[in-house]
Amino acid sequence: MIYTVTLNPSIDYIVHVDQLAIGDINRMKSDLKLPGGKGINVSRILKRIDTSSTALGFVGGFTGQFIKEWLKKEEIRTDFTAVKDDTRINIKLKAAEETEINGLGPNISQEEMSGLKQKLADVSANDVVILSGSKPASVPTGFYQTLIEIIRDKEATFVIDTTGEDLMDALSKKPLLVKPNNHELAELYNTTFNSIEDIFPYGRRLLKEGAQHALVSMAGDGALLFTENGIYQSNVLKRPVKNSVGAGDSMIAGFVGSFTKTQDPIEAFRWGVACGSATTFSDDLATKDFINELLPEVKVTKID
What we know:
Blueprint: E1 2-6, E2 10-16, E3 30-36, H1 38-48, E4 53-59, H2 61-73, E5 77-78, E6 81-82, E7 88-94, E8 98-101, H3 110-120, E9 128-132, H4 143-153, E10 157-161, H5 164-171, E11 177-178, H6 182-188, H7 196-208, E12 214-217, E13 223-227, E14 230-234, H8 247-262, H9 265-280, H10 288-294, E15 300-302
Parallel strand pairs: 1-4, 1-9, 2-7, 4-5, 4-6, 9-10, 10-11
Antiparallel strand pairs: 2-3, 7-8, 12-13, 13-14, 14-15
């Protein structure tokens, strides 16, 4: 089984206006409410590529109920930990420029944190747990490390998609996959990149420090995969860009969904690029048909 963990899910409230007038009344052109959160996005894409998962995390209130009902409609299994406070709402305001206003998230009690840890204690060897995204402010530093220890004690495998100290602390625990983008990787090691080749030593460093595989996304320059056997680059697929939300999550879903079936990191990379690209070219997360349409276009080249 694949489990996804989203500590701070949301409803993403997407609002389109022709032109935003600050300090005045604005009329929506259209709006859309979607379940949000990086792990939830991963579960939704896994479903589209015929891979089962169970979504874990903290949800509460009428907003949390919306998320549970949406995932039930998509036939995605959930085992969320109920919390007293409402799940947050993130506003994605799309005008001439895109503006985001992200909610703080609920206050999570010690009892609620213990509830999630108990659910993770049910994982077993051969399971994969995908830990994604930020923590609510009330969740203490080191909570991801606590979850990783539970996963490792059960001899399960984990993927971590976060940044900064939480990512650095996880590397020594040998995650199956990490996926910083090029900007996050540069920030992680306090450096800058002026070319794709500049990234190579730092991608290798992720492996040296414990990651089994590292994906580095580079927006319009495609993506890199670092493995013990070499560095691989994908081509860049060409379609109109519609959406930046969930592309990285889709890439992780494609990689993990494929890798759990084939144990082939190169084929998994192809699936990751197809899923991530399909979401970038869609209004919401990618559909199964669009992913399958793009997959033959993905070319992977060993570059080092």
